[in-house]
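FAQ

Q: What does a record look like?
A: Structure on top, sequence underneath. For example:
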């Protein structure tokens, strides 16, 4: 235990109003009476009103009602604490999730109500990180603005860049949750332009402004339910039952991870597997399958089979086109 931790423990023990001598404190904290005396002297020099009483029943005690007040965190420090809490999960390979959640809870309890309850913004089963971080330097500032809007139930006006259509649109959104996936931040909420729940990547937001308009989260909305069968991020609202055969060694890689709550894996004699699951939409799972190349083959549904085939054909056309252009240039 560090010196600072030991001193905190001494103050906590003395706040019980018991008179404890150096030997008793040393036994409880598994150190020596000499160290206890040194720690108490350091606490006295820091202004903690510890007094001593000699005699058979003597010891140390607090001479007055004393409340230890930890230093307050700034808003940016508190935000960083909340982000760390949601990233350090078992899904991300951190095996002490329970302990870190308890530690963070104690820190937040000591800090009091600075910003609000992180449960309103994050749900750990929907938060994980993988890959590289966003380049945009505006994301950090946007996070603070969106968090405040969520807690205050205030709508936002955003100018959003759509990379597919190559256009900017101004949208009014009611922010419900912040989600961290694939090392990128997204805000999910009601989009007034489309009249439905949408997700927006913070790195694609060009401008943002908090509106003086209150909103109420729909009673039937749950971030867990919304993201339940979403492999990555895109939820089209249409559910599919998919079956994919993964060949060795991809079968091993797939079986080692928890991808979807509805997933089922059946091993075959040749060490391949059949991966079955319910998914919302086919965009994300198409990309996921293509990442495994020839080691993955879609069995169901036919719509997904056709999607993957079309992507493979488009890739082949790109390479043939480039090959033919190089051939012409060389001649």
């Amino acid at each position: 235990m560090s010196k600072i931790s030991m001193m905190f423990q001494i103050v906590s023990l003395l706040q019980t109003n018991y008179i404890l001598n150096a030997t008793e404190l040393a036994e409880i904290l598994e150190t020596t009476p000499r160290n206890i005396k040194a720690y108490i002297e350091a606490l006295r020099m820091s202004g903690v009103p510890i007094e001593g009483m000699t005699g058979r029943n003597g010891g140390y005690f607090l001479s007055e009602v004393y409340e230890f007040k930890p230093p307050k965190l700034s808003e940016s420090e508190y935000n960083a604490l909340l982000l760390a809490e949601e990233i350090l999960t078992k899904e991300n390979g951190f095996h002490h999730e329970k302990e870190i959640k308890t530690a963070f809870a104690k820190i937040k309890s000591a800090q009091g109500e600075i910003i609000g309850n992180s449960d309103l913004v994050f749900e750990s089963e929907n938060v994980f990180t993988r890959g590289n971080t966003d380049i945009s330097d505006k994301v950090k500032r946007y996070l603070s603005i969106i968090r405040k809007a969520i807690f205050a139930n205030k709508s936002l006006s955003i100018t959003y860049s759509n990379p597919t259509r190559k256009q900017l649109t101004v949208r009014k959104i009611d922010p419900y949750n912040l989600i961290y996936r694939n090392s990128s931040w997204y805000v999910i909420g009601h989009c007034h332009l489309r009249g439905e729940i949408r997700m927006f990547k913070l790195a694609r937001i060009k401008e943002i402004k908090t509106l003086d308009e209150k909103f109420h989260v729909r009673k039937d909305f749950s971030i867990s339910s919304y993201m339940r069968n979403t492999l990555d991020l895109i939820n089209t609202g249409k559910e599919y039952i998919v079956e994919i055969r993964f060949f060795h060694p991809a079968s091993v890689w797939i079986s080692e991870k928890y991808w979807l709550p509805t997933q089922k894996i059946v091993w075959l004699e040749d060490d391949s597997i059949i991966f079955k699951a319910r998914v919302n939409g086919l965009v994300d799972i198409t990309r996921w399958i293509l990442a495994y190349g020839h080691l993955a083959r879609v069995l169901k549904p036919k719509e997904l089979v056709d999607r993957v085939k079309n992507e493979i054909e488009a890739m082949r056309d790109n390479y043939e086109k480039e090959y033919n252009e190089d051939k012409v240039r060389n001649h």
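Q: Is there anything notable about this one?
A: The first strand starts at residue 50 and ends at 53.
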